[in-house]
Amino acid sequence: GRIITTSPLKQQVSSGERLYRLSNTGPINIMLPKYAMHGDVIEMFDIDGLTSINHLTIYVSEGSGHAIGTLGQTKYEVRTIGNGRLVFDSSNNLWRLWDGDIRTRLKTIKEDRKLLPNEQVLVYGMNNTVKETITLTLPRNIAVGDTVEISLGYMRKGQTVIIKTEGGDIIGTDKTLLQFPKRSQYPPEMTWVEVKELTFNGTDDYLPYLKFAYVETLSELGWVVQHYRPNVERVDFKNPERIGLIALATQNQANIDHENNPEKELAITPFTLANRVATEERRGIAKTAKSSMVNQNSNGIFEDDTIITPKKLNERTATEERRGLAEIATQEETNTGKDDSTIVSPLKLENRKASESLSGIAKIVPSKGTPGTQRDKPGTGVYNYIDNTTIVSPSAIHELLSTENSHGVVYLASETEVIEAPKMDAKFPVVVTPVQLHKKTATEDRIGFSQIATQEETDLGQDNFKFITPKKLNDRKSSETLEGISRYATYEEFKKGELNLISEPGKIKQFLQEARITTIPESGIVFTGNIWDTCNFDIKPSSEIDRGTLKLSSQSQADLGEDDTTAITPKKLQNKKSTEQVEGIIQLSTYAETVAGEVNNKAISPQNFVLAVQTEDNGLQASTSLRGFVRLLDGASVWQGTDEAGSDPENEDFLHDGYAVSPRELNKALSH
């Protein structure tokens, strides 16, 4: 065998050679022998498996008259990975090529073809004008599990592809199940269909990728679709009947009215639909208003984004508090005057005349009437008291002045007129109302009305109009909050603390000069004098016998520890730390701090001390260079060997750092 690498020159090979190609070095060119015998063989091996990148080019020798692969071909380029052979056929003067590459490669199909097992094909349409039909025949009598892969994605419009079987083979599906089928079309609702062929049209169908597998699980041998992937399209406004993907519209896109040319290939979700509410500027959805919202009073707060149905509109009847619908009242209903839900038309109103038994419309009494000459004789106009068909207007009422012979309207006397009582003018007859009469009150300068003060007003003492009776004066008792009448308390009443009495100074002095304050001797408090004259309180210094007062110690007093008359605060005690020179408080170290041995301001507890002593390999064990704790060994840990040979000095099992031998164990070891 010979190893060949890349070279700019054609490398000459001989019949019978075995060539091992280092394809990682680059493209390789070889020249076949000029002279060959029938059956001569040249073997080639792709060591690196990179011929698919670095191609092998085979040339026939110039002047040999040979061909390679097919008649007339003098050069052949190999792009496959694997081994191969060249065999010389002298009858055709042709080097026949056997390629050991077993990889399946996609084949482009443009015409009818009988497919091979495990073949991959792609149907390719040339153009949209030629409406051709290509038939692909699936192989039969092949191994169970063989597959065929067919890609129809490059079919043209109008092109038809028929995939059919031969003999008794069937296909275990139909085209419907390969074109976005409904769930109800699958088992168990339906049984699997078996057909002899599948037909796909490039214009109407969703062109899939299909992978068929040859199986024996159907009613007879045949093909199943192991995998299919239909060509997924986007929705097309011009072809609304076709299924496809669709993007979701944004809220702004969903809100565009149809006259403003909205997007035609977007989907609206329930969320965006719910947000497209009707406004005054755009169409949209709206909820139906509730009866409670429709029927609220006119001064209520109304929604502007709901709609009213005829039923709700009919429910909104007019009332005194709200605008709404109402029927026109009949004449009977108008005259009865009991229906408060209908409205009165001008005609019905005109026919409702006022009478003693019916309120209604009537004429206004003529103006400029004159009073009667006597009290029992009617006058004219507004003074004609026997007229029972006309009504009096405000102007006529204003003419009806009261006289001595005819009753009528009067002016109400003003406060000044009531108080001063001037001579009456006939054009302006006046009368005194109770209110104005009450204003003619008594003062220090005029006669008039007055009123007895209530007890509350008497106690308040602010009303200068009302007068006080002896009873009210007697009931105005003096208190802490009210000035009033009272009497002097007796000394016994004073001592008992009776209320609403006057205490004179003499009784107060007598009371306060008596002993009123006592102290407990053990408390350290001393009292002298009395409350009226002079009283003194003093607190003894604190001692081990008596309670009293203490000053707080300074930090220096707390550190010195000699003062027995001051008190130490928690802060001063906290600052009195123990050192090697000064006594004080100290913190217990943790186990880790105990073993580390680095802090000098903490104490070791017995627990951590025992734990540090009894824990092995914690850094405190004795060694040849450091003092420390040890554990006594015995038995085989001290001596191993025989009496004849002694102990083995090379034995690595003997423990060292942190361990010691007692005199007893040493004596036992020496006895050997």
Radius of gyration: 64 Å
Shape: flat
Structural class of the helix and strand makeup? alpha/beta
Flag low-confidence runs: none
Distance between the termini: 76 Å
Q: How are the strands ordered across the major sheet?
A: 1-3-5-9-10-7
Mean pLDDT: 86
Percentage of residues in strands: 15-25%
| Helical residues, percent | 10-25%
DSSP helical segment count: 18
Secondary structure: number of strands: 38
Sheet of most strands:
6 strands, mixed
Write the layout of secondary structure elements.
Layout: E1 2-4, E2 11-12, E3 18-21, E4 28-31, E5 41-46, E6 56-59, E7 67-68, E8 75-78, E9 84-89, E10 94-99, E11 107-109, E12 113-114, E13 120-124, E14 133-137, E15 147-154, E16 160-164, E17 170-171, E18 197-201, E19 208-215, E20 222-230, E21 247-248, H1 251-254, E22 266-267, H2 270-275, E23 287-288, H3 291-294, E24 306-307, H4 310-315, E25 327-328, H5 331-336, E26 342-343, H6 346-350, H7 394-399, E27 411-412, H8 415-420, E28 430-431, H9 434-439, H10 455-460, H11 470-474, H12 491-496, H13 505-513, E29 525-529, E30 535-539, E31 551-552, H14 555-560, E32 566-567, H15 570-575, E33 587-588, H16 591-596, E34 602-603, H17 606-614, E35 631-633, E36 641-642, E37 646-647, E38 659-661, H18 663-670
